[in-house]
Design goal:
globular, six-stranded mixed beta sheet, 269 residues
Amino acid sequence: MIYSIYFSPTGGTKKAADFLLAAWTEAAGEAGKRAEDVTGIDLFQRTDFGKYAFKKEDVVAVSVPSYGGRVPEIAVKRLQKMTGNGARAVLQVVYGNRDYDDTLLELKETLEGRGFLPWAAVTAVAKHSVVNEIAAGRPDAADRAELNAFGRKIRESLEADWNGEAPEPGLSVKGNHPYREYKGIPLKPKAGKSCTGCGLCAGKCPTGAIPLENPRETDTEICISCMRCIEICPKHARKLNGLMLAVAAGKLKKACGERKGNQCVIAGQ
């Protein structure tokens, strides 16, 4: 079976994951290929992730955003509850056009520690979740074509592996030890006067930082600044401090001015 595991607070990571997996879901028109169903597993769920135990013949695509050059801690903890049993893993890190630093290495080692076999690694650019004008509109049409091509190449390498034609796996990715230190950012969304207290944000917050009994509040100690609440608020009532956001944007734009490309590496290639 094909699985897509993703942590996508504002939608960019899930979009990139869908583009990459189109090689499986849209394969019906290709000679000798068939379309396959992809089972999605959303790491934003509040569920028992320990129930997920995969099989060696499964393909598991794991897509996460890069937070300050690291995998979001909550995503790591939820992945560490799963059992790979030798399933081939396709790693995807999505970042906001700055850098992904040690995210890919951390994701690879997290999955290896749970018994997955990392087979391929992809990095993709999406709209920056905090400073939205950075990489706005990405992944775009050009990204889609490139990620589709990566997916086809990865699928072909997996088919060669199943047919006994692939070289011994050995995936090398960018990253350093110790991992880059990340303590979060001071930008925390807050509710404005237009908040109706509907509670949608509280129900969707991955850390429970927004209390259901009073969704106008935010526990800044456990908020991870994922921006999910801003993305889904029907009244656009949750926002960041404007001055702090402007300062952050000024700093980031210096490092994010040039369009960065997507990359793909496959084990044994």
